[in-house]
Queue: 2 jobs
Job 1
Amino acid sequence: MNTALSKESVLGALSAIRDPDLGKDIVTLGFVKDVKVADGTVAVTIELTTPACPVKDSMRADARKALLALPGVRDAQVTMTAQVRPSRLENKARLAPGVRNIVPIASGKGGVGKSTVSANIALALAKLGARVGLMDADVYGPSLPTILGATTAPGQDGDRFVPVVRYGVKLLSMGFFIPPGEAVVWRGPMLHKTMEQFLGQTDWGELDYLLVDLPPGTGDVQLSLCQMMPLTGAAVVSTPQDVALTVAEKAVIMFGKLRTPVLGIIENMSGFACGKCGNHEDVFGVGGAERYAKAKGLPFLGAIPLATAIRETSDAGTPIVEAAPDSPGGRAFTAVAKALAAQVSIAALAGPRDGKPEPAEVSRPAPGSLAIKWSDGHASQYTARELRLACRCALCVEEMSGRALLRAESVPALLDVRGVQPTGRYALHIAFSDGHQTGIYTFDRLRELCPCPECRKKAPAR
Ligand code: ADP
């Protein structure tokens, strides 16, 4: 009987097991490593894409069962490991090069518990074995040092920050640098500079996930971050009631415009169970975020109850995932962390999700021209001058009225492209030989501007 047992038959048995999130079997996904067959004993290692995999235990059990069902197998040992895959998006900016996935946590408005959720998810992922960083980009109301009970400031190594480590999570926050009673009153460029420092001049080291606690709303910090480097995707936190969801939708729309995928919606403050009498009350309602997510075709990552213990543990500097991991709140956060990690794996493996074409190759075939080969095979060739004239930056178009400020006769006839830089996952930043260098051209706009006859026919008015 033993002669029938081979590496191939082991892989054959394991190919019946699917990863429900990635939608393929674990052999095709390359998860099965180190197959050893000896004397009726089979040992395999299954390498998942995250240590926080929600189906880790059931997958191990299914694999054991499948192996034990093979003729000649008396014992089956299944070891589960994980290797978080880096996002397939190219990080040309080379900021935070050791960080595999950057995941902003956003909300439409303040007070919905975004920071509390960010902190607890970070801790849950670290407890599950991931390498996690938490960047507090909520510059106006940085609360993560308090929530994580971090009292010492980050270290400094030359001009680089060394994050504070709390509960296994690397933390950097504006809160460490603002004296008590002071407030940050900054314009966009200062915020941009700070985000650049936080990402690029910080020793994040090797991280599986860098969660970024964004300020509420859709402002400068969000834009800066999405422009600076490709983000794996964002999670949006909302309370369940319709008004909150209407505001949360603005964050969803913003990420859509910046081509940053929304990895899912988290419902916080979902129903209240009284700690004393057990009575259940839906203070802000319940289930609204899940319904919203379903209607928009977005993943729902889970619901966190409204619970006094969540607030108290955050106020005390030991979030509930650390203080009481088996409480309803602690368990809810861990489940959300696993669901988020699963979505990160999906996004990291799949690359761009909206299916829209992106530049695959940008070149300058001749002086005065720019060529783009698109991911869908289309090719565009522009003259530098027509791109320059189509610039919609604030120097070329009046922002409020849309009135053109650029005069065609002021643009030299012989113009060249000096430099092209990717801007996040949604645009190219183009600098020209006349010194103009503030033009950001979204991929959609560049497709609209494609001068080939086929595209001109489709979009005659530009
Ligand atoms: P945001 O970052 O959205 O402004 P915070 O995380 O600072 O919100 O939360 C606002 C307040 O609500 C804090 O006092 C926090 O402890 C509390 N809070 C957040 N989530 C919950 C929850 N699920 N149950 C109870 N209190 C919560």
Job 2
Amino acid sequence: MIIAVDGPAASGKGTIARALARQYNLPHLDTGLLYRAVAATVLREGLDPSKEADAVAACGFDDSLLADPFLRTDEVGQTASIVSAHPLVRAALLARQKRFAQQPGGALLDGRDIGTVIAPEAEVKLFVKATPMIRAQRRHLELRKNGINVSLDKVLADIRARDERDSQRSEAPLVQAADAVTLDTSFLSIDAAVQRAVEIVEKKR
Ligand code: C5P
């Protein structure tokens, strides 16, 4: 079974993906991390994320980078959404994601284009969403917990900017697959959202 989990930043898709992977014992790939690794490399090497050639040069990152806490920062997230709009960057990361999806025992992948581009054949497709304000509040809380002091307005503006870039790009934009089931987590607790996700999987498999 292949499970595809797509959705915007801070929608809850990461939490839901991890819980489903555990529940169904599937290997899990957080594809956002791949774009974040490219972004972190661009930033560290002083390259220009808006230049396709610079971003492509950063695609040969070492896998050990995927565990680096720097990848989780908002700066890297924003830069990831710039580098990920370049068609050649997406092409450079495509085979790896497709291979992961097609392993014999099945797989779970989360990102923006799993149900549409990486694994259109997935048996289960979830599109996780929540209102921009609720996503901003969640991210704001998380940042404050980590001792990062930033206003809610700034977090909301960043979320809107990232949504805009991710959904307007021409290559593999963030868009719900026609056969994906919507899971709106705006007014759900984490447990309730996970439970709902499990119900959706159970119905489909
Ligand atoms: O999910 P995460 O916030 O880690 O993703 C970081 C950025 O990587 C997203 O804003 C998006 O631009 C890009 N991304 C993508 N396609 C994916 C996963 C992430 O373009 N499958």
